[in-house]
Amino acid sequence: MRTATALFFTAGLLAALGGCGDERSAPGMVITSDGRFLSNSATTAQGEAERSITTSLEEALGRTWTVATTIKELPNYRENAVGGGEWVWESCTADVVLTGPGASPLPADEIKAGVVKYLKKKMRHGEAPLAVMVKIQTAAVAAPAVPAVPATSPVSTPAVGPRTYKIQPGDTLADISTLHFGSTERWRDILAANPGVTADHLVPGQVLVIPTR
């Protein structure tokens, strides 16, 4: 496997198409290492440096790893003797966060050394302040989905209380016993539960109490 220091960063970062300018922008456009045309600005140079670090590390670590690179300072534009120029940092602080499934294939110290080597080439002075922090973290494993439990309708409980029956024309206690108990034998229980009712004189419309089973 290629080391991080050997991997950083073979493609040219920016090709300037303009001359001088102020410290945060310069005339013309730039062509990035992947062929995009962008404004020749400090923000573009910052973003391209971050992207170059991120892309190189992701290639070295493999598809299961993601990299997020942040450079906190913006660079300044420095003219050269032939009328062109380049973006350089007076000081630079870079944070690199690597997220993967477990232990990193490359040691954090080696990754940091590669980032430092790359950024030093973009500093105005060799001894300018440069700080690089590399953080390696394990990706959170998603918990398996728990099937939703369908809601169940509560079972209705009948109200507790005596049953009743309204006497119909032609009813006998034997008929009412058969209706509620499946047998004529409980007619005496029905009669006992209804004081004042006689077996030989049932009044239609009268409500009888039906005893519990």
Folded structure, characterized:
Helix content is 24%, strand content 26%. It has two domains: 4-138, 2-Layer Sandwich (GMP Synthetase, Chain A, domain 3), CATH 3.30.300; 163-210, Membrane-bound Lytic Murein Transglycosylase D, Chain A, CATH 3.10.350. It has 213 residues and is an alpha+beta fold. A three-stranded antiparallel beta sheet has the order 1-2-3. It has five helices and ten strands, in the order αβββαββββαββααβ. A hairpin with a 5-residue loop joins strand 5 and strand 6 (85-88).
Mean of residue pLDDT? 79
Indicate the proportion of strand residues.
25-35%
- Compute the gyration radius: what is it? 44 Å
Number of structural domains: 2
In the sheet with the most strands, the strands line up as 1-2-3
Count every helix, treating DSSP H or I runs of 4 or more residues as helices: 5
Which descriptor suits the 3D outline?
rod-shaped
How many DSSP-defined strands?
Answer: 10
Distance between the termini: 85 Å
Write down the CATH class of the largest domain.
Alpha Beta
Q: Which ranges are low-confidence, i.e. pLDDT below 50, for 5 or more consecutive residues?
A: 9-23
CATH architecture of the largest domain: 2-Layer Sandwich
Q: From the helix content, strand content and strand pairing, which structural class follows?
A: alpha+beta
Q: Would you give the CATH topology of the largest domain?
A: GMP Synthetase, Chain A, domain 3
> Helix share of residues?
10-25%
Task: Give a short account of the largest sheet.
Answer: 3 strands, antiparallel
N-to-C order of helices and strands: HEEEHEEEEHEEHHE
